[in-house]
Design brief:
The structure holds two protein chains of two kinds. By secondary structure, chain A is mainly beta. By secondary structure, chain B is mainly beta. Helices cover 0% and strands 51% of the residues of chain B. The mean pLDDT of chain B is 89. Classes of the chains: A mainly beta, B mainly beta.
Chain lengths: 114, 116
């Protein structure tokens, strides 16, 4: 069966520090991968998605970036965190056939920027 | 532009009572609609989805939703709520071309509290 992992589970970082969040999927190949941010009272915002290794699409311009160095690995990064980057970051995957497929979400990373 | 509105930010229901969570969408073509649930500090889990056919959709955990095109709604219902149903619920619509990489548009969520 497929599983999706995210780490770390929680993170507290000072403003201006770098960020690296990791997401990995097991039990499938060539998944579509997504990064969402969930801020309090604002629902889920799609940040990035990837249909393959090295292929990244950005939905919202900001100081975050994403990379996909391996088929089942998706990384969210920042060179300098802002206070507004605080939130709950969710990684998700689908089997690769568009959004009619169920999106499977990871457990999330709670990021607090102080 | 496509959008999803969940008018109720927070709802409290007594255990054993019925539940209805509202969802309205704005989308020019045939919508593809979803309901997800998120337990505190966890990821999202799919409850049910509607693509076509019967407008009453059955999901997991005893939930159902009804698609009403005339009202642009996809309300989630459960006849008898259990304390374990306390969570945040998200309605979502699939927008744009159904192709690899296209994602969902989510509403802002409704928090459900269950009182004893």
């Amino acid at each position: 069966s497929q599983t999706i992992h995210q780490w770390p589970a929680t993170l507290v970082q000072p403003v201006g520090s770098p960020l690296s969040l990791e997401c990995t999927v097991e039990g499938t190949s060539n998944p579509n991968l997504y990064w969402y941010r969930q801020a309090a009272g604002r629902g889920l915002q799609l940040l990035f998605y990837s249909v393959g290794i090295g292929q990244i699409s950005s939905e919202v311009p900001q100081n975050l970036s994403a990379s996909r160095p391996q088929d089942r690995q998706f990384i969210l990064s920042s060179k300098k965190l802002l206070l507004s980057d605080s939130g709950f970051y969710l990684c998700a995957w689908t089997p690769g056939q568009g959004w009619t497929d169920t999106q499977y979400f990871g457990p999330g990373t709670r990021l607090t920027v102080l | 532009a496509q959008s999803v509105t969940q008018p109720d930010i927070h709802i409290t229901v007594s255990e054993g009572a019925s539940l209805e969570l509202r969802c309205n969408y704005s989308y020019g073509a045939t919508p593809y609609l979803f309901w997800y649930v998120q337990s505190p500090g966890q990821g999202l889990q799919l409850l049910l989805k509607y693509f076509s056919g019967d407008t009453l959709v059955q999901g997991i955990k005893g939930f159902e939703a009804e698609f009403k095109r005339s009202q642009s709604s996809f309300n989630l219902r459960k006849p008898s709520v259990h304390w374990s149903d306390a969570a945040e619920y998200f309605c979502a619509v699939g927008a744009g071309a159904n192709q690899a990489g296209t994602a969902l548009i989510f509403g802002k969520g409704t928090t459900l509290s269950v009182s004893s």
